[in-house]
Amino acid sequence: MTRRSLDGLTIIRFLAAFYVFIFHLQLRIPLPVPNYAHKFLMNGAIGMSIFFVLSGFVLSYNYEKRIPESYYTKRFLRIYPAYLLMGLLTIPFIFKLPISTILISMLIFILPVQAWFYQSFPIWNFGGSWSISVECFFYALFPLILKILGDDRRIKMVTLVTAYLISAFIVPAAYILDKGSNMMIFYSSPLYRLPEFLIGIILASSTIREALKIKRSLFLPSVLIYIMVAILPNPGYMFWHFISLPCLSVIILYAAQAEVKKTAISKLMIWGGRISYSFYLMQLPLLMFLDKIVDIPFYGSIITQYRGITWTAMLTTNIGLSYFSFALVENNEMLRRWLAKNIYTITQKINSTLLRDLSKGK
């Protein structure tokens, strides 16, 4: 398969980020929409699965042949600066917590390992930033995963089937056994999300090495089924994975191969996909601010009365903050070079110190 810019996947990334955003708004200030539309909006957390499968796909597509020595540095520079900006913007909302909780939360955020503590989900910005913690875990494992998978098609197929079975049936089984009391563990845990990442890696490998083609006659029904499943009651937001994951796989494969015509709408969506990481992050301080003022009777009554205007204001503000984050932090080449230089210097100092200590030990 000829390498391309993957504009189709960029558009899907935008749609997933937007879906998650309006899900968060519907949770707080629900729009008076028909019941089926409300159910669809309230199922927006399934957009996280799209992110994780896409992450595996894009990494595998870009790095399957060779992982450069600068891989970890590039991943750090891709994620951490905008993540840190989001943390700084949400700092004012942490001071209502006990000092011990603040200190632990700061440490968890800096590392970042919040996804490993499902109890942290309702604390500070962890209700949204948990997914970045999951992605960091995936990025750290990715070179090892590629090495284990190798070029053996059988290993990849066994891994794909195993990943699907685990991801598809663990939540329904858990729900049947304990009636959904531990759904949050499965939803936010890196280990339970890892199968989605593995599926993305192997899908990309199938696209690159085997030139697997997906026809529109398979793509359109997959989109329709995926949307229909999103209207169903969905405990843990992963109950219907045994249906939605195959559909999502088809959608991603088709989008990766599609030639996207450059229209005004497609260009706008591609741009939205490029800033989608910042768009996801910048919603968190906005949502925390909304949670704060909605409890104030005067402002809460205005927000409730003018829901459409509130949604529009939130969306507009998030786009503005996202562009600021993307242009000045996430995609700032000068900042990246400065950080890369300093990271390299620190790494060299650590290496030289370790080598010196080792030589003294001999």
Given as residue ranges, the uncertain stretches (5+ residues, pLDDT < 50) are none
In terms of quaternary structure, what is this? Answer: single chain
Query: What would the average pLDDT be, to the nearest integer?
Result: 91
**Could you tell me the radius of gyration in angstroms?**
21 Å
Can you count the beta strands? 0
Distance between the termini: 52 Å
Strand-residue proportion: under 5%
Gross geometry: globular
Largest sheet: none
Q: Determine the structural class based on helices, strands and strand pairing.
A: mainly alpha
Number of helices: 16
Into which percent range does the helicity of residues fall? over 70%
What is the N-to-C order of secondary-structure elements (H for helix, E for strand)? HHHHHHHHHHHHHHHH
